[in-house]
User: What shape does this take?
Amino acid sequence: MEKLYYPHLELFPNARIKSMDEYEALVQEFEKDYEGTWAKYAREKLNWFKDFEQTLDESNAPFYKWFVGGKINVAYQCIDRHLDSKKNKAAIIWEADNGERKVITYLELYKSVNRFANLLKNKFHIKKGDRVVLYMPMIPEAAFAMLACARIGAIHSVVFGGFSADALRDRIIDANAKLIITADGAFRKGKPYLLKPTVDKALEEGCESVEAVLVVKRNNESINWVEGRDYNYNELIKEQSSECEAEIMDSEDPLFLLYTSGSTGKPKGVQHSQAGYILWAQMTMEWTFDIQDNDTFWCTADIGWITGHTYIVYGPLAAGATTVMFEGVPTYPDVGRAWKMIEELQINQFYTAPTAIRMLHKLGADEPKKYDLSSLRILGTVGEPIDPAAWKWYYEVVGNGRCSIVDTWWQTETGGHMITPLPAATPVKPASATKPLPGIFAKVIEKDGTPTPIGEKGYLCIVKPWPSMIRTIWNDNERFKNSYFGECVYEGKPVYFSGDGAMVDELGYITITGRVDDVINVSGHRLGTAEIEGAAKKHDAIAAIAVVGKPHEIKGESPFAFVVLKENQESSNEELLKEVNEIIKEEIGAIAYIENLVIVPDLPKTRSGKVMRRLLRAIAKKEAIKQDTSTLEDPSIVQAIETIVKNS
Ligand code: WTA
Assistant: This one.
């Protein structure tokens, strides 16, 4: 059997879960009294304005409701309740691209968020339930804006700054947003870049709901200004009072929307709740990251993704921790940047994506050794499967063979971690997410609920509802039901299917094998192949296209396109790739660039016309074709495509 890595217990004297026995005991507690145990934690961890009456309402499944009747405010949970004991503790340490730092204490955070909240209320008349879209760089004002929305009960929807104007527009329209909060731009690798022009372009058509654009001046580059629509944050904020009462919110009121990719073209507005979400954000900080009062926690995600929401802003602040927010990239001014930050800030938990780990490994395998990284206790990874080689380098070189690695499996829809090692308890097998957290009933099953045999691939499902789960897809209850509860049943009930495949080993550990739907994971960014295809189809010469994921040394996966040209059209692979990527840049953003493109005579289709993607995936990987191809409409096409790919 493979070697297991045991925790160095001396690093975790105050861990909440100290052994696998304690872990098992907690799992049992949830098994015996599911609702009672969740209720106990909700009462212990959250500051309620009014206690809840019912823990879990399953009457309208899968539209589950948690902590029904409870009243709460997430900004209060993240800020106000800490003021008595840690008002001058650093809440956020922000490091700029150029290395400048800003320390924001809990008291300062309280004032900044209140001023922001007052600005939203007084100037823009934002009320409870209104949607506010954030298109922001990694600056403290992004966190202030999120928390200000939470404070007044507005629903934020953060759109990742790498998305194009078209992608931003789609999200604004779907959310029917009243206000956009953005910045002129920010700095990356020593140079200013812009965001505001993308907002201007997005608003050119169809965004009738938008009344105003609030612009934070970060780099003071010259930008276009629409009088009467655009407002200068830096000026307006000065007039606002630093006191703003927290809105009394219902447990189940929406806290935020976050758009993510699914297997069809249109992105889904994943809707999260107040109480359930913040409870799990806080609890996973304690369980997975062993967060202690004097710790400094650094998650390198962008706030445009769920990881940034839960583990830069909401989780660390709800836990009363110090969270690091970084504007730049870990390779500027050199590949030692991240290690230097860890040394200087004495980071205790470092949380990043396998793509970053592979890149830092490749560019400077020995670089971490030049720095004192002894403050680290926990190294986290998220977003895509990590390969054993990257895992070992992370463990041995970055963690110096002593830190616990937590390979956290979760999703935008799950709100927080689902399956992960516990740093002071779980013996870890490299590249396995190991076991579900207590309270999370994750199972690898067949579609009918039968457990998948050990060592075989099955569907990764969560068979009981949990507090931080997605509540619905904004404006589309049907799609919510079909996307997540339409595929798998367990004990006769539809259960949440993640879209991922997984395997269980003889230890009961779960290893994620990747998406089984048409979603690919490029550098930890989740992209729907249908979305990429939809964009590419706007190219005049393209009759049909299928995009699949191909393994990539650094990015994990990269998009590989098979294209059929319209009659009488001609192009070369290189030329078409360039043109298609121009369109993708406009429609989605550079994050979705196609890496390889081949022009083929036709796509392999079944007689009913379904494109055989599995076949294309094998061809893209240059694997031998094992599938039976005799059922294809034209079996000879497979060989033709294989030859084209071989010669490309
Ligand atoms: C993948 C990111 C393997 C998975 C938090 C999932 C992972 C998708 C892991 C969600 C992991 C996330 N090991 N794969 N530790 N964590 N994934 O919504 O395919 O951006 O379904 O959430 O990332 O991506 P999302």
